Amino acid sequence: RFGRVDVLLNNAGYGAYGPLEAFPMERIERQFATNVLGVLAVTKAFLPGFRKNKAGVIVNISSIGGQMTFPLGTLYHGTKFAVEGLSEALHYELEAFGVRVKIVEPGMIKTDFGGRSFDFCNDESLAEYQGTVKKLFAHWAKVGSAPSDPSVVAEAVWAAAHDETDALRFRAGADAEQLLADRRAQDDATFIGALKSRIGLASG
After folding, report:
1. Is 63 an active-site residue?
2. pTM of the full structure
3. d(Cα 113, Cα 71) in Å, to the nearest integer?
4. How far apart are CA 120 and CA 122, in angstroms?
5. Exactly one of 17, 63, 76, 87 is catalytic; which is it?
6. What confidence tens digit (pLDDT) does each residue in 159-203 have?
7. d(CA 108, CA 142)
């Protein structure tokens, strides 16, 4: 009806958080099916058209959580690291016939991510995890009081979709810029140690 597709935006996803031990396998599989397999399935469906046209842009929404992690995010971060990896690898395959792949990495954004898009699983009988659960939620309440406006993501998506350079990653939000700059500049022990300190987790 509208002619050829020029841009594919993969934005479906949600966050599963909680101790891995508490999650039933069906919820683990659902997290990966939505956040990773969904991206692959939709992308695969559009590739024949992009290949035929020798043009197109694929913009995959990742997260700062595809470059760094928070406690209790084994599943969510696992999926976002996967999105980063598959996107980076896919760009090699597609650039030969004029298709570009871009990754957008939002930080804390004023959306309903912590509501209907948040799947928290916990088992309070697993006492060893409960201190981490409480401290993480307290930390999120503190940092979540000033999220970025959703417009910063829209701007990053627009920039990514229209970018004709070899730039692969586009950050969205001041916290994304700062945290990912720190992650790149610091070694694991320094960055993760500082994050533990801010959350109030014991180190070592």
Report:
1. no
2. 0.92
3. 17
4. 7
5. 76
6. 999 999 999 999 998 889 999 999 999 999 999 999 999 999 976
7. 12
